[in-house]
Amino acid sequence: MSLLPVAEAQARLFALASPLAVEQVPVVQAAGRWLAHDVLALRDQPWADLSAMDGYAVRAADWPGPWRVVGESAAGATQPQAIGAGEAVRIFTGAPLPPGADAVLIQENATRDGDHLTASHDPLPSGHHVRPAASDFADGAILLEAGLHLGPAQVAAAVLAGHGALPVRRRPRVALLSTGNELVPPGAPVPPGFLPSSNAPMLAAMLAALPCEVIDMGIVPDDLTQMTAAFASAAQADIIVTTGGASVGDHDLVRPAFEQAGGALDFWKIRMRPGKPLMAGKLGDALFLGLPGNPVSAFVTATLFLLPLLRHISGAARPLPRSSDAPLASPLPATGERDDYLRAFRAEGGIVSVTSQDSAATAAMARADCLILRPAGSPPASAGDRVTILPLD
Ligand SMILES: Nc1nc2c(c(=O)[nH]1)N[C@H]1C(S)=C(S)[C@@H](COP(=O)(O)OP(=O)(O)OC[C@H]3O[C@@H](n4cnc5c(N)ncnc54)[C@H](O)[C@@H]3O)O[C@H]1N2
Ligand code: MOO
């Protein structure tokens, strides 16, 4: 089987998936999810021409006065009475301008004696310190587009537009299965020949930043019957993720167990390093991702496939990791026949790749804050050359 390019594998994975059902949730709970539909403004913002400052609403053409102060306008009140030539209204930030007024003279630039007001500063252009009605957004306008990630700024806009709830896709359930006879649970005593199972806690930590429910189904031994049963009970989830047993050894049983449980494999083996043995398919309605067991390989494949898949079924318009480019701090060798995803960190002098690029080197991985993407067949790179990076934060 030839190795599948990463972008092709991502596209095939997305094609296997159906978007999750839409639900309306209170705006604050929608933060961190993606909008399922376009959101329209339900009101004008501002609702009228409002003052942006504390001062006096006047007709700019009357500058520099004098004006006669005939009333007051404060935020929360309805529109004040109209003013005529030579008249002014005391006004506060956020309050509606009286009809006839077209500018606000800030109080620092005004001299007032009883009802008598004059300007003591620069000329006053029409529209000065006025926020026109609907200048932020107008009733019926598309305010936020489907697929947009909802962060604090989008929450503010949605609330101001009159929304108390927003349409988002329901949180998917992600089942994690750690396969391997050599694994013991995190924190348990580790007899010789065993090692703590770190992949599920690592994946749960990666998923913690996303809107989903993680179900850790524990450690499954390298036994076809037990692994097949584990797949059957995980099939209720939206995404089943296994780690380990993805390669070609005699104890690598994930693929046969998945198929014995009724799963249909879509692809296996990707043109990437680390992460070559990644596989994906469907078991009933559940999507399946079989990640390699090596912790670094599991981390990189989760970054490039699991998190994007979750964003995709959750309605994200841009589910793939963001990339940028940055200069290298030191040279890199040519790449081989697979795309390299090197663990690296951002330093003053440029991007530094961590000392060990072994797919089992977790201490080195723990120093990384980005991946360097070096496409297959890249020539050696020198210090200062710009490379593609995928930030991990
Ligand atoms: N003859 C070949 N051998 C291997 C190939 C190949 O193409 N031909 N591919 C290699 C590559 S690339 C990778 S990556 C690994 C992946 O193998 P598996 O997915 O089958 O993983 P395991 O063999 O089960 O485990 C690998 C390694 O990771 C440790 N591990 C497993 N699970 C966990 C866990 N939950 N927490 C921490 N560590 C875990 C396991 O003990 C092994 O040391 O295959 C190569 N071999
Ligand atoms: O591709 Mo494996 O993931 O090199 O270590």
TrEMBL record:
InterPro entries to which the protein is assigned, alphabetical: MoaB/Mog-like_dom_sf (IPR036425), MoaB/Mog_dom (IPR001453), MoeA-like (IPR038987), MoeA_C_domain_IV (IPR005111), MoeA_C_domain_IV_sf (IPR036688), MoeA_linker/N (IPR005110), MoeA_linker/N_sf (IPR036135)
Catalysis performed (reactions): adenylyl-molybdopterin + molybdate = Mo-molybdopterin + AMP + H(+)
Associated pathway: Cofactor biosynthesis; molybdopterin biosynthesis
EC id: 2.10.1.1
UniProt domain MoaB/Mog: residue ranges: 175-312
Class of enzymatic activity (EC top level): transferase
TM region positions: none
Purpose of the protein: Catalyzes the insertion of molybdate into adenylated molybdopterin with the concomitant release of AMP.
UniProt family annotation: Belongs to the MoeA family.
Name of the protein this chain belongs to: Molybdopterin molybdenumtransferase
